[in-house]
Amino acid sequence: MMNSGATVSTELGLSLVVPEHGAVPLVASLCYSADDPYAIRMAFHVGTEEPVEWIFSRDLLSAGLAGPAGEGDVQVWPGEDHGLGVLNIALSSPFGQAHFEAPMISIADFLNRTFGLIAPGRETDFINIDTELDELLWRA
């Protein structure tokens, strides 16, 4: 088992797609941790003190590079904007919906670095099932 504190993170410039108004530039932080090997955390810096954070599957983000992926609250699909590859990310919650475009090359680079930390399909090697069950039962 590797150092459970190992992480991969990056800052990412992306666009909030606003129908009939064009795109609004934003900055988001992506973070992947060996402590939670299936998840990607994306924090959107939208001018408030605390960023808005979403957590979704690394596999979902990876699948979205090749074609439409996801159901429900998070959907991703490849696209193109001014001749450049983008990853479309649609988020939905009871508070509203948002559609973002992120540079495909930046997302692919981030994912490749996470795969260097923990290879796809090897995530279970980095989870202590007994500890996870203890935490779940302790909260119940």
Can you characterise this structure?
With 140 residues, the protein is α+β, with helices and mostly antiparallel strands. The protein has a single domain, classed as Transcriptional Co-activator pc4, Chain A (Roll). Helix content is 23%, strand content 45%. It has 3 helices and 7 strands, in the order E-E-E-E-H-E-E-E-H-H. Strands 4-3-2-1-7-6-5 form a 7-stranded antiparallel beta sheet, with helices on both faces. The longest helix is centred in the C-terminal third of the chain and has 14 residues. The radius of gyration is 16 Å and the shape is globular. The model has no long low-confidence stretch (mean pLDDT 87).
Set down the secondary structure blueprint.
Layout: E1 7-18, E2 22-33, E3 39-45, E4 52-57, H1 58-64, E5 74-81, E6 84-93, E7 96-103, H2 104-117, H3 129-139
Antiparallel strand pairs: 1-2, 1-7, 2-3, 3-4, 5-6, 6-7
